[in-house]
Design brief:
CATH superfamily of the domain at 536-664: Histidine kinase-like ATPase, C-terminal domain
Number of strands: 22
Radius of gyration: 50 Å
Distance between the termini: 92 Å
CATH class of the domain at 536-664: Alpha Beta
Helix content: 40-55%
């Protein structure tokens, strides 16, 4: 009963708290609305130093057209005051204005930068000023300070919310609700004492507790010394440190308890007499069947659903026995079906080697043993984690739209494994959740890496074999065909000296053809295996290649090199040389360029090769572009464990950047 009274007091307190806080919120809204209105800004901005007829006429127009009707409809405010410098204008809603300018002396000394409220307070001469003063600074359109706008609210407005004198209010004959300030003085009129505002001190257990920031209930003497039930709470009001207390006399609250106790005692005695009599009459007839039902229920509770109780009568006990037997049969059948389904699902769920997690917005709902084995977590630990804690995929997992993707799994020891995720939405117990199948692809990734290494080794062997074949062809051309052509030239010159002068033109022509063939063989031999690459290094070989290309193609190629290139091994030299050959060949075939630039730069631990032309460019994403040049370049860069970047647009030329790590 006391708890019910506390609940009732707390309900009243909650309602009063909302009303008071809403009341103050609305007053703040009104004062800030007034201060920012064009009429107030105009009145303050044009407030003259002395009385002026035109200004008085403007002021009267504002009062009649707006202010009077607003105050009448609102019903809360007593006075409106505008301050501008040493000048003020006051308009009162009553015939006897309550506001005195000296109440705001501490506000007028500075320019407040925001709205506020002045509490009820005592004047210097001792009189209590029972008006709440809401104020707000006024600024013009240029954000210039004009003055202060003030609205006053009388104590009656607070009492209309707080003061209850009828039992219908929920506080009975002795209950009341009131407000106190941080000085423990009342801020609303007491139900039992007139003129209690700022004159009645409330230093009770409740007021001491609530002004430290706590809220709750309690039983203690109130400010009159009378034992009360109290519910209290700190108010959330800007600029005021107030609290609310709702109380009821303990004696009034316990009246229903005394009555109830007497009624319970009477009814209990009566029930005991009746029950004892009835029990004595019928106990012998129902004890045995009930005991049997109880024993059978215990066995069913232990999982033995084969229990049946013999029906010996057609009364309620007989009907109960029949219902019990039907229930046991249904339970046995349903349990058998559930066990069979659970067993099938469990076998399927636990037999799979893939981890399975059902989750709702990343929070696990169900996991299988395979996922525990995969991650090293126990099932309990997994249920406490978020999906993001064990799966990393570069972006937020819940934002992934793909049904299948690869990610990184994080184990309990913080090691990682590559995983493949397959996800979909399913219905589970009446709600839509996500189902994730998590497959460990460590072995597959290892095989893919081994295949990639084998592919690179085969490609490297193929390219190295091509280089060896080029060397052999170059050597055969130089040592075989080249030497034979030189011998042929010497033999021809011996014969030509014996020919008559009439054959001189044919002799010179044939001699030139032999020289041209010898040069052609040397060029082919040099292209297959440039000797300058081994003798003088990569930069000299590339410079000669660019000069020769410029001479043969008419495309001017600029070559720059920087740094010591001698650290580059022979394989890197050869591959870089072939890459430049491929690039120049592409420029000649496709670019329609007038000039190109080759730059070879030595970095700290890498070589940077840049190939640029001013040709027509192309779309690097066009997978249907013909030719193997770019493919061969990419393959060689891959074998050198480097990276290649191609930047090109139609009509804007092409820039190829290649970074190769130095391996001695």
């Amino acid at each position: 009963m006391l708890q019910r009274t506390f609940d009732q007091l707390t309900s009243v307190r909650v309602v009063k708290t909302r009303q008071i806080e809403s009341f103050f919120h609305d007053r703040y809204f009104d004062i800030e609305k007034f201060a920012s209105s064009s009429e107030i800004i105009n009145l303050l901005g044009t407030l003259p130093e002395n009385d002026h007829p035109e200004y008085e006429e403007k002021l009267n127009t504002f009062k009649e057209a707006y202010l009077y009707q607003y105050f009448k409809n609102c019903g809360y405010y007593s006075d409106l005051i505008l301050y501008h410098g040493n000048r003020s204008m006051t308009w009162s809603n009553t015939e006897d204005p309550n506001f005195r300018p000296d109440t705001l002396h501490f506000i007028l000394e500075t320019e407040p930068d925001s709205s506020g409220v002045v509490d009820f307070h005592a004047e210097k001469h001792g009189e209590i000023y029972k008006q709440l003063i809401f104020y707000s600074p006024v600024y013009n359109d240029k954000n210039e300070y004009l003055g202060i706008c003030v609205l006053t609210v009388p104590l009656d407005a607070i009492n209309k919310i707080m003061l209850e004198k009828t039992p219908a209010s929920g506080l009975g004959e002795s209950g009341e609700s009131y407000l106190i300030g941080s000085d423990f003085l009342m801020r609303s009129t007491s139900r039992f004492r007139d003129k209690s505002v700022l004159s009645t001190e409330v230093k009770t257990d409740g007021s001491l507790d609530v002004l430290t920031g706590n809220s709750g209930t309690g039983i203690f003497p109130d400010y009159r010394g009378i034992k009360v039930l109290s519910s209290y709470e700190k108010l959330n009001i800007k600029g005021l440190d107030w609290a609310i207390l709702v109380e009821m006399d303990y004696n009034e609250a316990t009246i229903p308890i005394t009555r109830t106790q007497n009624d319970i005692i009477f009814i209990s005695v009566l029930l005991i007499v009746v029950i004892v009599g009835l029990s004595f009459v019928i106990s012998r007839g129902i004890t045995n069947p009930i005991i049997k039902l109880k024993n059978a229920s215990v066995l069913i509770g232990e999982g033995d659903f084969s229990q049946q109780v013999e029906k010996k009568s057609n009364d309620e006990i007989g009907a109960l026995t029949e219902s019990f037997n039907k229930m046991a049969d249904q339970l046995q059948k349903q349990t058998s079906d559930l066990k069979e389904r659970e067993e099938r699902l469990s076998h399927f769920y636990e037999a799979t080697k893939d981890g399975i997690m059902l989750h709702k917005e990343g929070v696990p709902v169900l996991v299988n043993q395979a996922l525990c084995d995969m991650t090293g977590y126990s099932e309990t630990a997994l249920m406490l984690l978020d999906m993001q804690d064990i799966i990393h995929c570069g972006t937020k997992l819940l934002d992934k739209k793909e049904e299948s993707f690869e990610a990184t799994g994080v184990k309990s020891d913080k090691t990682t494994i590559p995983v493949e995720i397959q996800q979909s939405n399913i219905d589970f117990r009446g709600q839509t959740i996500s189902a994730c199948v998590i497959r460990d692809i460590t072995l597959r990734k290892k095989m893919e890496a081994e295949l990639q290494i084998e592919r690179e080794q085969r490609l490297s062997a193929l390219l190295d074999g091509q280089e060896l074949e080029r060397k052999r062809l170059s050597r055969d051309l130089h040592d075989g065909l080249g030497q034979r052509l030189i011998a042929l030239k010497l033999h021809f010159e011996n014969i030509a000296n014996k020919l008559p002068n009439e054959a001189l033109p044919q002799k010179e022509k044939l001699s030139n053809e032999i020289d041209f063939t010898i040069d052609e063989v040397r060029q082919i031999s040099g292209a297959l295996n440039p000797p300058v690459l081994e003798e003088f290094g990569l930069d000299i070989a590339l410079k000669n290649l660019c000069n020769g290309f410029s001479k043969d193609s008419g495309i001017h190629v600029f070559f720059d090199s920087s740094g010591d290139i001698s650290e580059v091994n022979y394989k890197q030299k050869t591959y870089l040389y072939r890459i430049v050959q491929e690039a120049l060949n592409n420029i000649l075939k496709h670019a329609k360029a007038s000039e190109a630039r080759i730059q070879l730069l030595k970095k700290t631990q890498s070589i940077l090769l840049m190939i640029e032309d001013n040709g027509i460019g192309f779309n690097p994403e066009d997978s249907g572009r013909p030719g193997n040049g770019l493919f061969n370049m990419r393959q060689r860069v891959l074998l050198l464990q480097g990276r290649i970047n191609i930047e090109s647009e139609n009509g804007k030329g092409t820039l190829i950047s290649i970074h190769i790590p130095i391996k001695k």
